Amino acid sequence: MFGLSSGHAFPGCSCCRPLFSGLDAVAGSPRSMTPTNIEALGESRRAGVPKSDGPVIDCHGHYTTEPQELLDWRKRQIAGINDPSQMPSVDSLRISDDQLRASVEGAQLRLQRERGTSVTIFSPRASGMSHHIGDASVSAAWSRVSNDLIYRLTQLYPKNFAGVCQLPQSPGTAPDNCIGELVRCVTELGFVGCNLNPDPTGGYWTEPPLTDRWWYPLYEKMVELDVPAMIHVSAAANRAFHTTGSHYINGDTTAFMQFLMSDLFKDFPTLRFIIPHGGGAIPYHWGRYRGIAQDQKKPPLSELVLKNIFFDTCVYHQPGIDLLTRVIPAENILFASEMLGAVKGIDPETGHNYDDTRRYIEGSTILTPDEKRAVFAGNARRVYSRMATLPFGNP
Amino acid sequence: MFGLSSGHAFPGCSCCRPLFSGLDAVAGSPRSMTPTNIEALGESRRAGVPKSDGPVIDCHGHYTTEPQELLDWRKRQIAGINDPSQMPSVDSLRISDDQLRASVEGAQLRLQRERGTSVTIFSPRASGMSHHIGDASVSAAWSRVSNDLIYRLTQLYPKNFAGVCQLPQSPGTAPDNCIGELVRCVTELGFVGCNLNPDPTGGYWTEPPLTDRWWYPLYEKMVELDVPAMIHVSAAANRAFHTTGSHYINGDTTAFMQFLMSDLFKDFPTLRFIIPHGGGAIPYHWGRYRGIAQDQKKPPLSELVLKNIFFDTCVYHQPGIDLLTRVIPAENILFASEMLGAVKGIDPETGHNYDDTRRYIEGSTILTPDEKRAVFAGNARRVYSRMATLPFGNP
Q1: Whole-prediction pTM value?
Q2: Domain B14-389, CATH among 3.40.50.720, 1.10.3720.10, 3.20.20.140, 3.40.47.10
Q3: Where does residue B27 rank: exposed (0-12), middle (13-18), buried (19+ CB within 10 A)?
Q4: ipTM (interface predicted TM)
């Protein structure tokens, strides 16, 4: 049911294309792990960007500028599902450090400099996870090669990137199978969190809700490791949905509502989730959710979920950010851009990139200076608590 | 796949319970079609409700206070799917006019008076449609009895209710099958529109997108009859979703994104859709959608969709309504409350019912007085153009 024929899927769709294909041509340099830090703060910035008086942690960045070799490896892997003779080994992927550098220096790192971001919490391309393709063994190998590239980037640019891992989820497979890769990424590779897909089917939603005990072994390990998960679906395999336009946003809304109706955080008081894309539809309908919880005789949302759930700022216009900051406590908001991500253009209404979300936070008349500092860095340090263990300390 | 075992479904779930069960007991009076109009404007209102200087059309009301006889009929119908001997006929439903009056006078009509609503565009309970139950013949009979009750209410209270019909959709059945019931309701019963379910499966989303030619025959008839459709999913049969908390909102977001990616309105320039619940997540992420359209080289959303798509005001807090009115042109916003609907309680932050949405419009500092009049009535008259044919003329 969830094979290659199920609608559009990475790597063929427009959501999943490399964004900077010109960069893919750089190759062949000798591998080197010498760190090349890009100091964002203190560098000159594009004219007109408002100043910040502290560090800026972008908690939601994806490696969407992968070298072509990675995409080719994935193509062979997908071909190998039906023709095992084509299945590549994890070790067969060859990408040089220079290729990795070239893939980010004109893209994520340039934008970090231009926009004044100190560090990006960085994970594999979200739509690329495509857990609906193949079985758990396919997801395991694909997660491993994807996470290993993130790790190498965190080693090449230890002040610019903190790693977050893709999990080897697969439809119908209990999430216990993700524990090994999570432990490897956190304890061996120094990652600070994971991305958790509430719907590995890509839009058919046949897994148990996130509040089902099906997921508990993974949560136990997250708590033990003290790492949060960003709730993030992947490419839509169901043609009803547009990956970045509706499937992502619906995934966020669905997950929040599952949490609201549950007692999950009684069982896991320290479990932490980030709901990206500004929390989907949730803040816009905050009155609806407060009212539904009240009708269900549940405590106020501040007690019920806001000790455990956080929203990012991937909302691409000032009115949306203003709504978010009006209704959600500042301590529950983490700065993020989702770049290079869903929207690439320049907003003709502002003359700036839609995803230059820092401007909306800087431009907020709702947040106090202290709250802006918390949104820009303090909250991310608290939620991604293992950031403190990384080379840059507490950016 | 979409039978009774598919998760929770009307009439067992909490979303689907009668709200005023005490009213169901009134029965046995002789049937009478004598109209009993309740004049909302000019009557005394609850203290503290701001004044309006014109009529108020609520474009989104559901008959959620149905007499028990209707729910019992539906139970027998569901039982009849597996045991044809129990299948009731359409004609076997017996509900008196007094029962109908009792079902709305202490509920919808009382709230119309208290909140100063002139007329409600009224349709069967949305979650009750449950198109995933049974086959097209089951949906046909259920739609007919449900719509007939709405008709009788419009005859009993011709100044208070305008009818909108449920369609006999069924998973996998081409929507051509809905044309007969649509024509009957509009031409024989005087209805002004229909509710269209983009996902008759109740959360598995296996139908073609709303922009597929699968739906075109129905659209042709809508255009010919000059009636709009409110896009409205029904009860969630998929346990991943909460009916009113995520499935409804996701349905709205999904439909809009389908429209955005299509050329549907080139084929049907006069086709009109209302996306309820404030447009799902759309206004909150308006920058995202403007940016996605731009990346796709499409015209601005004002040209691409806003001649054909309208949003209601079922957003249950002032910040949400303020966001809606900041980003969506006033001419695309129709007043609605969704009562008696998803949220029944009183907001402790305001002391008023969450779904008393008129207060948020009255309280808006963004809309001008002219725009408020358009939101309250003028836009509904334009979109539901057949309102002008009803006994109350143009409220």
Answers
A1: 0.90
A2: 3.20.20.140
A3: middle
A4: 0.90
